[in-house]
Amino acid sequence: LQQKLIESEKLSTIGKLGAGLAHEIRNPLTSIIGLTHLMKENKYKAEYLDIITAELERMDNLVNQFVSYGKPTTINRVSCCIHDLIRETVELMKNNARLHNVNIYVECSVKDAEIYIDKHKIKQVLINFMKNAFEAMPDGGNICLGIETDLKNNEFHICIKDEGIGMTKEQVDNLGKPFFTTKENGLGMGLPICFDIIHAHNGRIEFHSEKGKGTEVYLVLPQNNE
Ligand code: ADP
Ligand code: MG
């Protein structure tokens, strides 16, 4: 019996993982299929290819994340402009935001600041937080992305603020545990991956949330650690 239980638990975990991966991949896939149909009808625009490439890269990253989860996170740091990184990420999320009736505001007080990070992985973290914010606002709303430097502590602070459903204290305490999800189609793997990536950068994540009011996520990254 014990063995059977373990087997069925394994199967249900695999099922959950599969459902989650399918869910994550469906959005970029739908947009790629739509664009290739347009191109077949000769409504070709050069920017379609850029979008297709970006969506394919996103799917590639997702699959890589899945197969690498549980293994130690390795990061490849490059020097990059934090403001550019935020702009590129917002650009990637624009279609998604429109679909969710969400407005994204960026408040960046450090326009030309450079940060030494794994750009791909931090982008993935920001995308995960923004998706959670969208999903917390089923009727749409505003997301504010704020970027500041804490010169005293040599840190970057990135804040992602939504006006969504918020969380209870108990929910906040569970954040980052693998498979913790309150969503019907949720997977509960987004935040564990984010925590891994931020810890690999020697940074930290803080949540302030109130049920029914909204959530603020603070990402803290050390400024110079080459
Ligand atoms: P998933 O999105 O698949 O559920 P995550 O690891 O991304 O998995 O998030 C885990 C849980 O944390 C969510 O199911 C939700 O309950 C909660 N959560 C995360 N971000 C937010 C947010 N911005 N607002 C409300 N709840 C959130
Ligand atoms: Mg999520």
From TrEMBL:
Residues of the Histidine kinase domain: 20-225
Protein's recorded name: histidine kinase
Organism: Gracilibacillus thailandensis
